[in-house]
Amino acid sequence: MVNLTRMAAISGAFVLALAAPPIFAEPAVPPGTPHAAPPSAPAADTAAPAPDGARTLASNDEPLPTDSTATAISENDGVAAIVNDTVISLYDLRQRMALFLATTGAHPTKENMDRIRDQVLKQLETERLELLEAQKNNITVSSSEVDKAIANITSDNDMTLDQLKGMLEQTGVNMATLRGQIATQIAWSKTVQQTYGDDINVTSQDVDAELKREAATADKTHYQVAEIFQAVDNPEQDAKVQKDMQELHDQIAQGAPFQAVARQFSQNPTAAQGGDLGWMADGQLPRELNDVLRTMEPGNVSPPIRGPGGYYILFLRGKQAPEGTKVPEVAASVDPEGTLPLSRILLPLGPKPDKDLVGRAMQAADVIRQHIAGCDGLEELTKRINGSIYMDLGNMKVSELSPQIQAALAKTRPGDVAEPFQSPAGIEIIVRCDKAAPQITAFHMPSRDDIEEQLFEEQMSVLARRYLRDLRREADVETR
Predict the structure, then answer these.
(1) Which domains does the chain have, with CATH numbers?
(2) pTM, whole model, 2 decimals?
């Protein structure tokens, strides 16, 4: 299983694997050489003209990616798929593939790229069905709703909006592609709620019963779980969906953030929250999933699991011992007279680097730090960071390290990555290679509001899967 203990949880936003283009994904340059600005790109927030027959939106509505009429295609582009007489162009497909690679930091082989293309196209076809249904129901999405989601992205990744735009432009992604995907997800969520919201009635008695059940499970282990789900609508699809999910698992194993993959490819409504399911008591999930969950530790990602309706990949974000369990806290401390197994990543800056270069390199180091999960695979990671240097320091006596390194390590626990700092050699990232003990807390009872929201989301997820299954069965989809 893949360990992702240090991946940040996400609420309605991507985790960006790239946030500082001058350090990532550029041709190699001598250390300290200033980087040229990326070529100019079209204004990121300028939406493409609506196709003929498109419904006129209010001034504060977000232009949705397509409408129920065929999308216009430039003479230099082609067709990737046709969904109910609307076109997904090759440009749409290329943009979404570039967005996936930019937001996950994946570096696939040519063979894997072909599989990613198939996965992205399948997801685009699904989103087109969702979008057409939203438009059929006169659903609109305001620009402020999309702006709020993008603000969550920049906040969760410690970026400004201009930095996000620059990162996407650097990888050839128009900002409208990201806005379009977010708008579609919001529109589909609104469609499901408008269609089924009145059918879901979480009563006070339901909440009381669930609180009683929670109290009855207080002596059980609880799991904080995230999911990626893809449906199997008929038996002939089973092998294909399993293979696709294995590919997603492999991409996560190679460093793609779970939350970003869930947002791009999961077919449950939890995709909008990076797959987050919240806290589940032992036995609450279906048996096929629960049996695997029991074998996992915080930070583990499961292989694809055949469960109700399709295949699942689970990410165990946290774990709670039964209520009342005394769980010792792990203090951040380093014995100055002891030894620690360490690795080092250096981003060399050359002599007398200018302030702007130092700032960009420090920003890149912060992003790198967030995506390091221990020392395994660290050398391979640095090979994808132009100009970086990797060193396995082995077991080092703490007292013999520089004062800067000692100060950085003083705030760490086993398996942690120290905060980056500048030294005369450049920007330093020091990684502790000792194994971190799983962080487990004791269970505490959820509030009534938490329970009511959980029950609503559970019922909504079941109805959303059924809704999408019916749309697929009735759809006319031609993949080119």
Answers:
(1) 201-327+440-445 (3.10.50.40), 339-432 (3.10.50.40)
(2) 0.56
